[in-house]
Predict the 3D structure of the following.
Amino acid sequence: MSNEININVLVGEMAEAIQVHCTDRGYDKPLMIGIKRGGAWVAKELHQSLKLSDPLGELNIAFYRDDFSTLGLHPEVSPSNLPYDVSDQHIILVDDVLYTGRTIRAAMNEIFDYGRPASITLAVLIDRCERDLPIQADIIGKTITLNEGEHVKLLGPEPLTLSFTGTEK
Amino acid sequence: MTGNSIQLDKNGNLKHFLSTEGLSQSLLQKILDHAESFASVGERHVKKVPLLRGKTIANLFFEPSTRTRTTFELAAKRLSADILNLNISTSATSKGETLSDTLHTLEAMHCDMFVVRHANSGAAHYIATQVAPHISVINAGDGRHAHPTQAMLDMFTIRRHKKDFTKLKVAIVGDILHSRVARSEIHALNTLGVLETRIIAPHTLIPKGVEELGVHVYHDMDAGLEGVDIVMMLRLQKERMRGALLPSEQEFFQRYGLTSERLAIAKPDAIVMHPGPINRGVEIDSSVADSERSVILQQVSHGIAVRMAIMAMTMGRSADDIGETE
């Protein structure tokens, strides 16, 4: 399955869709934020492709996860870095795989602790189409359906590849 | 005195934080790495993360303290925990309640963590042996034994300024005898692999057998400061002085006070640290304490991030780590 997905093509299509999305809504200078680690890799590609003037922000949601009390502190915690004020700004939030929606909830909670953005647009490389929470993406690279116990993970940063586990193939 | 066995759970995670002694280099580095992440929280619009929401932390201070207690309190609040400040010296124990009864009372209030400051060495360790399995204990200073969170915030401050521990020469100056900070620092510096640790003090303020910790002892301050990267001053603990250990504060300052002239003997980029509170004109000259070389106030800010990291690590263990599954 992984061979059928060309990430460069998907990212190119996502960049175009983001461009249209922002133009339609009059988002003049959107700020892009990637969720570490996979989302930040995708965001970096999108950020370059869209030639955004403001630097790319990176979010580490480890302090906002809802599984802290059962799983503990995530071992790879490195700081979030939002090198600007998010208040009243239009945010493009980028993640690699949208699945339960819990990561996005945590990310939005964290963004609001930095300030009150004017809007948040969610762009994801892969949408697994299953949710625990009422969250949806505005920009989707590719929609896939996996069976229970199957997982998809973005490997990177060079090159970006998708790894499928628990699948037959 | 404090082995690994009680500080770590069966999976090697930090359960209690009682001493820097016996903890691995990778664990100490992990504390510093986590602290780096928590430091950025203090620079934000909302200086709070929801990590310990719903947890209750009790500050048990059997001995007075301002900065340690308030930075623990701020750290807990920034992690969204609820915190109780108990000034035990003026409450329960003065009414005759035993320590173990006080602890069980607090357990009955569903506390999840005790931060303990006590005048007796080993007090936090003792409490850690008494509490229920889900409760973590953090030592906020016990007698002359240890003050591990202070040592870790000092290590954090050093790492921010100097990056590589293995190239550093560190001088700890002053009242080593009464200093739990010095002991915890020496263990942490050893574990992190510094090039050399020196202690500089009069004979009467150096504990017996300190050389066994791998430090070099100097009684002459000028010789000891030669070529060091870090000058860690200690407070002259007047309240702990029993017997004539010192001729006078003036003479102490003359021989061991840090002045700008003396600081010039250290490396040109050496930094000056002090755990506070500082006695100006006793162990450190005002002009040095307020100079650009002094990182004393940064130490205070770093104390919040380091304590957040330690609290999150001890509380952030899985149900399996705590041993409450099945």
In short: The longest strand of chain A covers residues 90-98. Chain A is about 30% helix and 25% strand.
